């Protein structure tokens, strides 16, 4: 299977729109044909996620015409920018965006800032398979496999995989593995420059205006889902594909150690011990017992992994491009860790103690509505 993500840039209703789409192809020959077809819409070599000057319906038609087994999936559908339902540049329905090509959409990607339960609040999405992918656009290995799809196929082939998605078959498509949506960078509404983070209710009280600088807030995914939902929170449709909610293993280890940075030496040492004993991260996160885990690492890390597995830990929500952060025990506060989470640009520029000291100077405590009223 050959996959890629593209950024479609176009105008709709006299507004500029940008929607990210995933393209799946069955083999290299078909992928080359798709490359030739879409290259007329923009440069494919300028970026790993090329920008194409084409509306989604036209692109979908062109891709499917190459091979009917090609699959197009709207990516991270709730992200404020560059997504189907995004608060900044999205649409209010599938049909509004994809028009006559809506019939060729079989699945949608939940993205890091939403999970299936949030999407179940929209009855219009019941017909679509909800898929989850790590959406890793950085070189950092801890971004890989943050989210995943779990399938059981008699014939492990591209066609059977796509057929399971198109038929929304629960016997083959067993579940998805999701990060806690609060961990995503756009779960809550907020303003990064002012360290302001607000729940949907608080944001409405502020009329989506930053109480610190009076600029418009970036409306988060939870708020946007509420705008479009026709069902209450917690609703689960009949026959829904199940899911489990996790936090990446490196994040859990760094939180248990009281460290801000998931790329530190101490984190990777403990991670290496666990991966040496267990086949993969998911077995550690989902299956290994406390005794098995603590046989190779500290009991605190073992307890942390089980707290996440049992949904006893909490995540302070991400907002306006800032990742959420894990709170394992309620006596931990936001000030105990870098509230901005891993900053990849900074990670490339600064190392060691110098990085830690500079971040300490830059980071101030998150603020909510109670700090202003």
Care to give the gist of this entry?
This protein is an alpha/beta fold and 373 residues long. It has a domain at 249-312.
Describe the structure.
By secondary structure, this protein is of the alpha/beta class. The chain has a domain at 249-312. Helix content is 31%, strand content 16%. The strands form 5 sheets. A 4-stranded mixed β-sheet has the order 3-1-2-4. It is globular. Mean pLDDT is 89; it is low at 334-363.
Topology:
Layout: E1 2-12, E2 15-25, H1 28-38, E3 51-52, H2 56-66, E4 71-74, H3 94-98, E5 107-109, H4 116-119, E6 129-131, E7 148-151, H5 158-166, E8 173-179, E9 189-191, E10 196-198, H6 200-205, H7 221-228, E11 243-246, H8 249-256, H9 265-277, H10 281-286, H11 290-294, H12 299-309, E12 314-316, E13 325-327, H13 344-349, H14 352-362
Parallel strand pairs: 1-3, 5-6, 8-11
Antiparallel strand pairs: 1-2, 2-4, 7-8, 9-10, 12-13
Helix pairs in contact: 1-2, 8-9, 8-12
